[in-house]
């Protein structure tokens, strides 16, 4: 039983558990057949269950299909572009594939002898909501040594649905310059590297267009340089999301559907808040994404943005499991990784899943409450790493509320104190304002900056993915889309370069340096009054 | 007279089969009466065996109960599970995130672990968790 206090000392600390179902064991919908499943205290029979899931799915997705979000049932539903479904091979995305196919692609028009739809493709009867649909799978096996490649398993599942094109991607594509160029991302023949050991995240430019390392080495170097397990899981999640969004752009998709269930949405929300992602909470629920450094003007004219929708956000994992079982949905699955629970994401998942079992209604409360939250200020721009809104003045706020340095030599010599807080750290303490970006920090949201720099107080060691796999490099190359974003930065910080912009040598460089007390006194010496 | 053993069909899904030699469907035979503490003492440990449980352990009589789902979970953990028992059971019951269906009905409607098994029952365990 979950507790809401300390049951060892307080008698009333345990929350009383409600009965698993209300009233009778018969279905609450048809009121005739004996029930087969309990969903949030309500009992449903097998026959009523599938239409219920279908109804919840359509209720979320249908109003988001037209360009203008509308709940009107009369308006004709027609998407602006194609459809991309993100599939991880897990339960949620497998159920999503099945639901999308049954609802929008299974009633294909009757075909003539020539293989074309009867009445012609432009006949109103033959018009589909989306012209075409593709399924994107990001293979992450190279991020974990013990993980098996499941691309072919997922391909087999996707190909069992006629009409869906399969697009396999690999996580290491994020570090493949040629892959990004093929998507229309302007890298300006430059790749950036960052030093994660310094909180200022100083940037350096890699001289050769594609550098000597392979995309796989780039991925492993990036992940092994991250300070915590939490950071690694968050970084992988962000890379998968961004790769999928860019693929949606390439396939001219107006909609990107994710198989996030209510349970996994609640996990994401709580996990994101606890890692400092509260400002972009709305994007965790639903987002409209458009690439700011897209070189493909044809796509820019055609599509304003990709709408990321989670049509299973009212369906809990238990419903997904029962739906998959009773509708013969094939789930590829993935083994649980050892050590996965030590991150914030894993711990949050354990907590929410346990909560859902003991108090099923509380999980939906998390998502409903988060849906009411909105940030107070307008964003300062888009975070170059996660591509979500970035709050204003994050670094100034961080400087104000936290201890940045120790004067006491004893304290400063403590090994738990981060490098930037040591008195000997003469490097710039905050952001350096340069036209050519010298630091990654100003272009990151609070969540990403914390992910990249926050070290565990318990161990100063970097988390290693496998024995002997740790990176010895202090600087690691950044994903291609981040390099593209940094390349496009102009003097204003966020504006895009005009064609033929200034070379680095011509630009004004501003730096903020820590000054010693004696130097400061010397600067204002002539204005000081005598004692 | 009722048989002393129960034939059951066990199925795993949603990735849970990976813990059970990657085999989805198992057929097992359990004794009708099992130790009340769900221990495996005095009962057959071999799947498909029809050996009845011994009613005594030396001189001490073993307290028994009709075989239920809780006993089945202990049996599966001790006899069929190949790795990482913590991913299947927690605090004497099935781990949160695993859906249990008894003859295609949610086990919450059947009394969860206290459901008394009957000959020919089909018990399904589906993991709703994907990866880590």
TrEMBL record, chain A:
Subcellular location: Cytoplasm
Metabolic or biological pathway: tRNA modification; 5-methoxycarbonylmethyl-2-thiouridine-tRNA biosynthesis
Gene Ontology molecular functions: nucleotidyltransferase activity; sulfurtransferase activity; tRNA binding
Family: Belongs to the CTU2/NCS2 family.
GO BP annotations listed: protein urmylation; tRNA wobble position uridine thiolation
GO cellular component, one term: cytosol
Species: Serpula lacrymans var. lacrymans (strain S7.3)
UniProt-recorded name of the protein: Cytoplasmic tRNA 2-thiolation protein 2
InterPro entries assigned: CTU2, Rossmann-like_a/b/a_fold
Keywords: Cytoplasm, tRNA processing
Pfam families from the UniProt entry: CTU2
Function description: Plays a central role in 2-thiolation of mcm(5)S(2)U at tRNA wobble positions of tRNA(Lys), tRNA(Glu) and tRNA(Gln). May act by forming a heterodimer with NCS6 that ligates sulfur from thiocarboxylated URM1 onto the uridine of tRNAs at wobble position. Prior mcm(5) tRNA modification by the elongator complex is required for 2-thiolation. May also be involved in protein urmylation.
Main location: cytoplasm
Protein's gene: NCS2
UniProtKB/TrEMBL annotation, chain B:
PTM annotation: C-terminal thiocarboxylation occurs in 2 steps, it is first acyl-adenylated (-COAMP) via the hesA/moeB/thiF part of UBA4, then thiocarboxylated (-COSH) via the rhodanese domain of UBA4.
Segments of skewed composition (Low complexity): 43-56
Protein's UniProt keywords contain tRNA processing: yes
Cellular component aspect of the GO annotation: cytosol
Region (Disordered): 39-65
Glycyl lysine isopeptide (Gly-Lys) (interchain with K-? in acceptor proteins) cross-link, chain position(s): 132
Pathway the protein takes part in: tRNA modification; 5-methoxycarbonylmethyl-2-thiouridine-tRNA biosynthesis
GO biological process terms on file: protein urmylation; tRNA thio-modification; tRNA wobble uridine modification
Keywords associated with the record: Cytoplasm, Isopeptide bond, tRNA processing, Ubl conjugation pathway
Keyword Transferase: no
Gene3D superfamilies: 3.10.20.30
Pfam family of the protein (one): Urm1
Compartment list: Cytoplasm
List of residues that carry 1-thioglycine: 132
General function of this protein: Acts as a sulfur carrier required for 2-thiolation of mcm(5)S(2)U at tRNA wobble positions of cytosolic tRNA(Lys), tRNA(Glu) and tRNA(Gln). Serves as sulfur donor in tRNA 2-thiolation reaction by being thiocarboxylated (-COSH) at its C-terminus by the MOCS3 homolog UBA4. The sulfur is then transferred to tRNA to form 2-thiolation of mcm(5)S(2)U. Prior mcm(5) tRNA modification by the elongator complex is required for 2-thiolation. Also acts as a ubiquitin-like protein (UBL) that is covalently conjugated via an isopeptide bond to lysine residues of target proteins such as AHP1.
Family from the record: Belongs to the URM1 family.
Listed name of the protein: Ubiquitin-related modifier 1
Annotated source species: Serpula lacrymans var. lacrymans (strain S7.3) (Dry rot fungus)
């Amino acid at each position: 039983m979950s507790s809401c206090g300390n049951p060892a000392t307080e008698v009333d600390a345990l929350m009383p558990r409600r009965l698993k179902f209300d009233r009778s064991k018969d279905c609450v919908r048809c009121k005739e057949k004996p029930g087969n499943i309990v969903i949030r205290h309500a009992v449903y029979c097998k026959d009523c269950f599938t239409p219920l899931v279908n109804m919840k799915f359509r209720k979320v997705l249908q109003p988001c299909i037209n360009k203008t979000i509308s709940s009107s049932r009369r308006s004709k539903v027609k998407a602006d572009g194609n459809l991309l479904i993100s599939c991880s091979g897990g339960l949620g995305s497998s159920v999503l594939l099945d639901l999308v196919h049954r609802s929008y692609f299974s009633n294909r028009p009757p075909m003539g002898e020539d293989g074309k739809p009867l009445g012609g493709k432009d006949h109103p009867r033959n018009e589909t909501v989306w012209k075409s649909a593709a399924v994107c799978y990001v293979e992450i096996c190279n991020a974990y040594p013990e993980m098996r490649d499941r691309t072919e398993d997922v391909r087999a599942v996707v190909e069992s649905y006629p009409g869906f094109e399969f697009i396999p991607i690999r996580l290491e594509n994020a570090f493949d310059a040629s892959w990004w160029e093929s998507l229309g991302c302007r890298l300006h023949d430059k790749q950036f590297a960052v030093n994660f050991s310094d909180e200022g995240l100083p940037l350096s430019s890699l001289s050769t267009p594609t550098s000597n390392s392979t995309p796989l080495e780039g991925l492993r170097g990036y992940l092994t340089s991250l300070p915590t397990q939490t950071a690694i899981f968050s970084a992988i999640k962000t890379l998968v999301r961004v790769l999928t969004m860019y693929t949606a752009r390439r396939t001219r998709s107006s909609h990107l559907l994710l198989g996030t269930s209510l349970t996994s949405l609640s996990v994401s929300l709580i996990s994101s808040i606890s890692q400092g992602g509260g400002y972009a909470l709305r994007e965790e629920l639903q987002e409209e994404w458009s690439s700011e450094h897209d070189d493909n003007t044809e796509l820019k004219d055609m599509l304003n943005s990709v709408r990321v929708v989670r049509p299973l956000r009212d369906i809990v994992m238990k419903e997904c499991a029962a739906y998959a079982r009773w509708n013969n949905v094939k789930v590829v699955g993935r083994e649980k990784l050892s050590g996965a629970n030590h991150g914030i994401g894993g711990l949050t998942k354990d907590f929410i899943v346990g909560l859902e079992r003991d108090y099923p209604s509380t999980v939906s409360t998390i998502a409903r409450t988060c849906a009411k939250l909105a940030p107070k200020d307008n964003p300062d721009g888009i975070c170059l790493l996660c591509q979500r809104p970035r709050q204003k003045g994050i670094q100034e706020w961080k400087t104000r509320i936290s201890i940045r340095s120790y004067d006491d030599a004893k304290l400063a010599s403590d090994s738990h104190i981060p490098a930037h807080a040591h008195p000997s750290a003469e490097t710039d303490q905050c952001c350096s304002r340069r036209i050519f970006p010298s630091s990654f920090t100003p272009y990151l949201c609070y969540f990403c900056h914390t992910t990249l720099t926050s070290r565990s107080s318990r161990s100063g060691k970097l988390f290693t993915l496998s024995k002997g796999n740790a990176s010895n490099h202090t600087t690691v190359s950044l994903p291609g889309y981040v390099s593209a974003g940094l390349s496009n930065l102009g003097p204003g910080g966020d504006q895009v370069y005009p064609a033929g912009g200034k070379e680095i040598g011509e630009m004004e460089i501003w730096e903020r340096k820590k000054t010693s007390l004696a130097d400061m006194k010397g600067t204002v010496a002539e204005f000081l009054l005598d004692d | 007279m009722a048989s002393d053993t129960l034939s059951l069909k066990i199925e795993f899904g949603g990735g849970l089969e990976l813990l059970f030699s990657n085999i989805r469907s198992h057929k097992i035979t359990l004794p009708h009466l099992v130790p009340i503490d769900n221990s495996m003492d005095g009962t057959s440990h071999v799947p498909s065996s029809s050996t009845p449980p011994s009613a005594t352990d030396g001189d001490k009589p073993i307290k028994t109960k009709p075989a239920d789902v809780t006993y089945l979970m202990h049996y599966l953990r001790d006899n069929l599970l190949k790795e990482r028992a913590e991913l299947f059971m927690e605090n004497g019951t099935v781990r949160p995130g695993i859906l249990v269906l008894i003859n295609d009905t949610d086990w919450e409607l059947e009394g969860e672990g206290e459901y008394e098994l009957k000959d020919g029952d089909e018990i399904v365990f589906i993991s709703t968790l994907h990866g880590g």
